[in-house]
Amino acid sequence: MGKSFVLDPDERTLHGHFSKDLPPVLTVDPGDSVRARTLDAWWSTGPYHGKNVEDRPRVPEFREGYGHALVGPVEVRGARAGMTLEVDILSVIPATWGTCAQPQSWINELYGIDDPGVIHSWELDPVALTGRNQHGHTVALRPFLGVLGMPPDEPGLHETFPPRWHGGNLDCKEIVAGSTLYLPIPVDGALFSLGDGHAAQGDGEVAGTAIECPMERVDLTFGLRDDWPLTGPVARTPAGWLTIGLGEDLNGAALQAMESMFTLLERLHGVARADALALASVCVDLRVTQNVNGVVGVHALLPPGAIR
Q: SS3 letters for 233-285?
């Protein structure tokens, strides 16, 4: 049994960017667990009430120009660049409120929406896993963290918005509790951060936001792999194995997702690349992860038991 640590959102742990120069707030060994709380993406101190999502009250640590409210970084002892970080996601429990808004004007223009002020405030039931907005619509919740990742091996501060090959703003709705996320480690120590709680999101995240919410409890266990080199995010989820591709457009992202899936099929089933392609055409689904963060995400999904 490893040790357990607690990570709360406060002046010591909150940050709105990735940087390999940020000092770790925790150092854990492989096998150790972290129980974290997170703010919503907008650094809010409570439910939204008003007309402009940017006018909400925020924690004192918020600074203009910051991205998502992240907690960390968590250093994993023994992690080296080129190894694989293994993150077991044991629980993801949302708070009792959340917000879905349309803060990006280009999305409104894309769909011909002339009302930039559409905001849905949600009351969340983390036990029944339902959410209800101010218009009386009720949806099922499937909570997950939008941002799980590590900083680039480059100096300076890096935005939290684009997903990267070593994680970040992946916004993949399948990486729920019960999943294991595998990420290639870009920097020694890993320096892992998390945040951007989503109570529910559709594939694509077409309005630019999900039900953005704080997370009351997130339980993670960290491990290291030196026998499985990766070029991008891979996860084993309740929905199946998935590989995430990133690119400037959907075609590029889909190609990357499939390249990673071919490698995964070779590893899981001992098949050659040509056979992996044939099996993927029969058993693997391509889905748009998100299409709103500048860098587009596509995930390839191999359902459980699809190949026996």
A: CEEEECCEEEEEEEECCHHHHHHHHHHHHHHHHHHHHCCCHHHHHHHHHHHCE
Question: Using one digit for the tens of pLDDT, what is the confidence trace for 46-98?
Answer: 887 766 666 778 899 888 778 999 999 999 999 999 999 999 999 999 999 99
Beta pairing partners, 288? 298
Same domain, 196 and 251: no
Place of tokens 């595998």: 182
Residue 290 has pLDDT above 80, yes or no: yes
CA–CA distance, 147 with 233 (Å, rounded to integer): 12
One domain for residues 71 and 209: yes
- Residue 305 burial by CB count (10 A; 0-12/13-18/19+): exposed, middle or buried? exposed
Question: Do both 257 and 211 map to the same domain?
Answer: no
CA angle 141, 143, 148 (to 5 degrees): 160
User: Token match 């995240």: residue?
Assistant: 205
Cis peptide before 73 (omega within 30 of 0): yes
Domain hosting 292: range is: 239-308
Asked whether the predicted pLDDT for residue 108 surpasses 90, the reply is no
